[in-house]
Amino acid sequence: MLHEIAEATRRLFDLLDEGQRAAAVRDVTDDDLRRSWAYTPGPRPGLVLGDLDRAQRKAVHGLLACVLSPHAYAQAAAVMALEDVLDDREAGRRDRHQGDYWTVLLGEPGSDEPWGWRVEGHHLSVSVVVADGRVSATPFFLGANPARVTYRGRTVAQPLRLEEELARELLDRMGRTARGLAVVSDRPPPDLYTGNSPHVGDIEPQGVTPAQLDRASRGLLVGLVRYYLDRLHSDLADEEFDQLDLERLHFAWQGSASRGAGHYYRVQGPDLLIEYDNTANDANHAHSVWRRRSGDFGDDLLAAHRAAVRHE
């Protein structure tokens, strides 16, 4: 897996001219840049997709496709394409386009030094850091506006459908007592609690725990977590899943349980945070993120690498 990621990154690097490399390549040790991320519209450091030629654009997509699972890559591509749909709905007022996604390369593969990259724009942020044979890929954000496109009440497109449906199935299947614990507020927050903060910070675990769920509901909770981790290639997802303490999860829901109304949920563990909200635009504007408290932006991998180098 690591070889494929390195090859995809090298492929893009080799397609860039000198000026493009100067704009795209930054130092992975630039902590401020590495941790500076956003899911709102607007320019970012690096190269914007719309200015690249066809081969270069395909190479950027190759970065995503080698790290993401097939279904998550399809979600990411759909999220990017929705920019033109949203632009049409807004009559072009904000001049959105699916080419408005930026790539920054953090160092360069091919040595013993850490390296990585980020692909980011409105409603998409994928940060990858590689160090000492290990891969970090959080924060991993996907959003959608519109969250759901319909024809006569029937769904035509909904990139984050399972992010909503799997959580609803869990909420619907758990017993009344457990549901009373899980629903912690009748009003959802206006957005993700962590936003685009560089650190997860201290968020009090709320809601229901596996010990308070029946066996079937516990399986649904684990399945929801696994779905988020399975945004990554199976090898990477398996490694992430094996590190979780599943008995210490919390699932919390805020807002209405009725379809079409604003809602929010999160799943927390000792080093895990999953957040999802769909509140804006009459609950037709969804955000979702998977984060790791100690490992976002490869912080844990880089710290271990630096410690090993000092020790040597």
Automatic annotation (TrEMBL):
It holds the Pfam family DUF3500. This is DUF3500 domain-containing protein. The lineage of its organism: Bacteria, Bacillati, Actinomycetota, Actinomycetes, Pseudonocardiales.
